[in-house]
Amino acid sequence: MTTTDSTEPVWGRVLIAGGLDWATNGTKGRRQDDLDLSQPHILRSLSHVKVTKLLAGCGANYVGAIDINGVAHFIGKMPAYGPSANKGIVSYDTPVHISTKSVGLPAGTTWVGGGLGRAGIFLIDSKGDVWAAGNNVVGQLGLPLSPDVPRLTKVKGPWARSAKIIQVATGNTFTLFLTDAGQVYAAGSSEHGQLGNGSTSERIVKGNKLAWDVQTPPLQAALEDKKIVQIAAGSQHSLALDDYGNVYAWGYAGYARLGLGDQKDQGSAPVKSTAARPGMFNIAGKWKITGDGSSGSPYTTFKQLDELGGCKVTKTAVGGCTHFITTPLFGGKTQSIGWGQGALYGELGFGPNIGKSSTKPQAIQPLEGIDVVDIAGGLFCTLFLARPNDALSELDRFPVQVESATDCLVCHKDLPDDPLLECERCDEPYHPGCLDPPLADIPEGQWFCPKCEKEGNELGLNDEYFDEEEDAPYEEVPVVKRRAESETQNGGKKPRSE
Ligand SMILES: [Zn+2]
Ligand SMILES: [Zn+2]
Description:
Blueprint: E1 13-19, E2 36-43, E3 51-55, E4 62-67, E5 72-77, E6 89-90, E7 96-98, E8 111-116, E9 120-125, E10 130-135, E11 148-154, E12 165-170, E13 174-179, E14 184-189, E15 203-206, E16 209-220, E17 228-233, E18 237-242, E19 247-251, E20 266-272, E21 282-285, E22 299-304, E23 315-318, E24 323-328, E25 334-340, E26 358-363, E27 372-377, E28 381-386, H1 390-394, E29 397-398, E30 421-422, E31 429-430, H2 450-458, E32 483-486
Parallel strand pairs: 2-29
Antiparallel strand pairs: 1-2, 1-28, 3-4, 4-5, 5-6, 5-7, 8-9, 9-10, 10-11, 12-13, 13-14, 14-16, 15-16, 16-32, 17-18, 18-19, 19-20, 21-22, 23-24, 24-25, 25-26, 27-28, 30-31
């Protein structure tokens, strides 16, 4: 195991599995190509970056990562920041880098967290402010109503001036915000009571169209007397964990996903959910297609999965239809386990010889020996954060092949007795003795050429994003609170994340 400098935060390299064809992910006419990674690969474009935090969302067809400099990097179909020429799609090869400087924050501020929604992106800065961009048609960004917010804009919530936002949880049309004082705020659609503020305000307008209240700016969810330490959002429901280990649930209750014993939407206020065993994986609702736990017999309260036995859980993650845990093994190693029915693109990372979908939890074999410190599930792909070690160096990179020179980049010679050292990222060869300073030997473990090493340390830090579209203000709808009409979410169809 690699040890870390005590002053340096725990960092790792980004691995990715699943569907990287962002344009056609989730569509029927999906291209069959080589962009489905059935096992985790080192993401080459970020392989030289020291990442401290992964960003993904179970409804988001894009993923991101924050590095030790506090710069955020994204690939996929972004709701903002993507190149408009390419329908907002950012290739796995050319991530978008967003620094705090690019939104006008002073030097020394960093991104420390965020939330990726289906249509909205959130980043939290080191001062505790939250920034949002993307679709804001029902106020789900916590910003004054507008069809679209093209650039990260600070959310001015009703929380105290001294309060810091420490977590954001994104649903499909709403967002939860958690302050360091343990208070939860919510913004967006309250169609199913997912804001937890006592309002569903649902009323039939005509036919099967519904209308509901839009809350903006964010309202405080009804948990004022609790100290909440963690929040989570499904597509239309919300969960909060307090400092005593109690879980509160509210919002859409289809398949009894709130764990409250029935399928009645919980719109009036958050309700304490069933006691679950601490340190274990517990699940409620429908999580597979047939048998116990399917739509016919969902788990109406939070239950453990038999297959996981008494597995101690160190990390959990959920994606579109994927579930992951990490569990400690003897000798300080970690095992990564995944399951999920309906996974199509390899997002469980089991490898080419095992099915892409699994109702039963299984060890992710390609990650054996790899020190996975975090997992983040997206709608169609999965990110893993891995500490450098020998097993990681053996893992394939993606793209697997890149064009590189055959001769040393310094002396342009390929001397038969002189071994060449290849950069982990760009594959360009160098003689150890040609480097400045020269290396006596081929170093063990990961090695990056001077160019990649420098770029990895500074990626995005010097980028300016606002030069071309200076002060491009978004179009605000001049009403702070109003009724918005919209069709029933998802057109009556269940989204894949359900
Ligand atoms: Zn050379
Ligand atoms: Zn290189």
